[in-house]
Every structure is written in structure tokens, then in C-alpha cells.
Amino acid sequence: MFLSCNRQKRMGFTLIELLVVIAIIAILIGLLLPAIQKVREASNKMSCSNNLKQIGLAVHAFHNVNGTLPAGGISDSPPIGTGGGWGSAWTVWILPYIEQQNLFNKFIFTGNSGWGNANNYTASSNAKIPTYLCPSSPVGNVAPSPFSGTNIPSNHYVGVTGAAPNAAIGFTEARSNQGNTGTAGCCSGGISSAGGALVPGTPSITLANIADGTSNVILVSEQNDYLTTVNNSRVIWGAGLLHGFMIGWYTTGTPPNACNNGDCRTFQMTTIRYSINQKSGWTNAPGNCGTQGVCDNM
After folding, report:
1. Which pTM value belongs to this model?
2. 35 in helix, strand or coil?
3. 3-state DSSP assignment of residue 285
4. What is d(CA 295, CA 290) in angstroms, rounded to the nearest whole number?
């Protein structure tokens, strides 16, 4: 005798089975995401480090061709140009050495040139300069306050002009300017030193001038993040973020005594004064340019 079974074949999954599968997939994704994020951040870190390497090579190439390191920033006046005003920074002068010769050729350095020149803004608008941008930066890639209607790339790296007096116990520095002490907001800039390698003013520093040796001097550093003020507000911080990568310095003189009527702002440059990554406890906006060196318009 044979028994027959007429049960229907089951089609698909039950709801519980589907939920179990979805839960397993979610767990796997949850386990994989941190690993993917770590790989992405490691890649970004490598890219940022490579940018610093390329900048260092470009600065050395500039030195080989011109006999000096580029000015950290300088008014476009002789021997650089004739435009005057807020001139160009080192980030402009090394463009030919980071495969940006075509962009550099579009700049003019005469007749109200530099940062305030409409031609230079047009040339730089929407320009892509990967070497000046760190992929992991939280602050964006476009300057928030260039000329109206333009998108000027920011710069996440700054030339180190030296250290401020008393930056370390027993450290002194006579080659420095002090902005308008006590000034809040725009436009003082705090202390600007000329004891480093990429200094404001007419280029005159050679590798042979660096008494401590090039391996003991910081040339360029990354500077792009937010500071946290006393009232827990987040304020953007970086000498190449506010007006874009072009702007440098207002005079051809070098500290000390080379500010523009107390305006000692040094765009694309920084003077070491605080510990690395000291991001909290700053004076609430508009800050204090003179005594802290941190304010709304560096």
C-alpha cells in the first residue's frame, strides 16, 4: 500500500525568514562600514601627506630656478610686479611647479594686480588645484568671501613664517610684528614672524640661510578646521580659507615693522604660537586679533 501526499510546494520565504535575512545583512553592513571608513580615511590621510610632499618639492624647484624661496606673501611691487595692494602668496608663485603653468600664465602682476584684480579672479574661478586641498577637510573647498559671483578655491596648507615670541619657554624672536593689540574682528592679524622659511615680504631666504638646517624647520603645515570658542560656537579657522588661495601680504617689507597701518594679516601663512591641534577655549567671536591672534578675519 502506498500513501500519497498532496501538500502544495512552498513558494518563496516566510515573513520571518525575510526579516532574519535582512537583519543578518544589516549586521554585516554594520561590521563592514567602520572598516570602509578607516580605509577611506587612510586614503585621505595619504593624499594630504602627498600634497605636503608635492608642495615641498615645488618650493625647492622654485628655489633652484630663482635662487631664493618664494615669498610667503608680498604686495605685487618691484621686483615682483607693479600692482601693489594685497599681492600674491607663495601658493601663486609655485603654481608652475605643481603642474599649474596654464593657470599661472593667466595671472597678471601689474596695475592693481594680486588678490584685488578681476582678471586674476576670473582666471581662478572654478580652478581645480588638488594639491592645495585635503580630502578629509571639514571646511569645504571654496572660499566663502571672494569677489561676488566667483568660486575661488580655498587652500588648506599654510607656509610657516616662524614662531611668535614666547611661543616656548625661553624663546625670543625680534623679527616679528604685533598687530593692533586688543583689536577684535577684522583686521589686525596678531603676531607675524619672519624667523621661518616662507616669510612675508620680498623673497630673500635661501636654503643656505636656514641656520638650523632644513630638516629642523617646518616649511608648510596643514591648517583647515573649526575652533571651539568659550560658548561652544564653532568658528572656521585657516589662513587660506577666507579669501581663497591667492591673497598674501600687503607690503614688500618683512617683519618687524612692515604692517599696513597695523594690519598684519598674513594669508596663506601662519606664525606658530600654540600647540598643534589646540582647538578649544578660544575667545568668542569676533575673537581677539591682537592678543590671541585668532579673530574673524585673520
Report:
1. 0.82
2. helix
3. coil
4. 9
